[in-house]
Amino acid sequence: MSDVSNIIKSAKENLERQFETFHSDFSRTTGVLRSKIQELTDKNTSLTSQQSEIDENVVKLVTKISTLKRQKENLQKSIDENNEELADLKKELDNFERKFTNLSINHSVLSGAGTAEGNICKKCVLPYDQIERFHSVITTCGHQFCQKCLKQLFTLNNPFNFPINQEISEASCPNPTCNRSFAQANIIKLN
Ligand SMILES: [Zn+2]
Ligand SMILES: [Zn+2]
């Protein structure tokens, strides 16, 4: 009988030792897991607040974008309106310029018609011809010269005889009281 009770006693002691070991392992592991859970929870809280900050910024940006889009649309509308007005004004100016050119040509032709002076270029003092001294008129002012003289005005001779002649886009009318600038496109042959 005492053998049995000894066996039982030693088994009981053994179990208690195992339980204590298990219990201390359990406490340690639980502590580690709890602190890890706390760490992750804190991290989640911080990430969530960052996320809601981003959401707020997104809302602000979307609002700003729609405001800017509206402003852009309004500006585009103004630009379109201005362009329309500009096109109308340009058309009006073109019409005026065409009328002025026609009047200038008429005036110029009439004032020189029939006289000996009307058949001579006032720049080179040579008669107009059909080879290169075409009788021509500057449409911006209505003054007449031969085409050769007018075209020469667009070649800028280098004062140091550098071998390059530069083309210029505008020249001044050779009439001493005029000096209005004109382009090659403003030269019109009269006949
Ligand atoms: Zn001439
Ligand atoms: Zn002129």
UniProtKB/TrEMBL annotation:
Keyword entries, A-Z: Coiled coil, Metal-binding, Zinc, Zinc-finger
Database matches in PROSITE patterns: ZF_RING_1 (PS00518), ZF_RING_2 (PS50089)
Coiled coil (residue ranges): 58-106
Domain RING-type positions: 121-174
Transmembrane stretches, start-end: none
SUPFAM superfamilies (alphabetical): RING/U-box
InterPro entries the record matches: Znf_RING, Znf_RING/FYVE/PHD, Znf_RING_CS
Source superkingdom: Eukaryota
Protein's recorded name: Oidioi.mRNA.OKI2018_I69.chr1.g2127.t1.cds
Organism of origin: Oikopleura dioica
